Amino acid sequence: MKKKIVAIACAAAMMLALPTLAWAAPSPVGSNTSGDVNGTTVTVQAKSGSVSAPTIAPHAASTVPQGVTPLVSFEIVGTPDASGVTVSFNVGSQYANHAFTIYVEHSDGTAGENITGVVGSDGTITFTVDKLSIFSVVIGDVASSSTTNAGSTSPQTGVDLGTVAGATVVTAIAAGAVFVALRKKVTE
Length: 188
Known about the structure:
By secondary structure, the chain is an alpha+beta fold.
């Protein structure tokens, strides 16, 4: 009977020493939407607040230099608390690895800004902003190999496996102690 109990305890210790699953953090609360802007599907995701589907801008961003014609200009509007807004769209694989500049005109009257990067190998441009604005996209020459696409980021899972690792170590030590005690009892 004692051997069965010890065998069950050892089996349980081994089971608890197995690795566990890492659960991802819950999706952020916000809104997702997309819209067609001159044949380009623009997808917008906000971490908080809400955004409306992108629409064709009434004009190019005021920060676009004279003589430069944007490939596409679109406007994104939403609630004032909208933040962490990620915009993604495909300009076509013919622009893969080209440098891009997005000229931004803020609707709240603050100074505009420029977002630069490299078009992805599939023609996708992704960037994140904190203000809803008019965005005018200008594609440049093929980017040099030292330029990277700053729009790609790895997701954070928000999981701390320190507790699981500690429990695994304690369980393995307990299993070792049971083994030593049994060996000692068998040799007596």
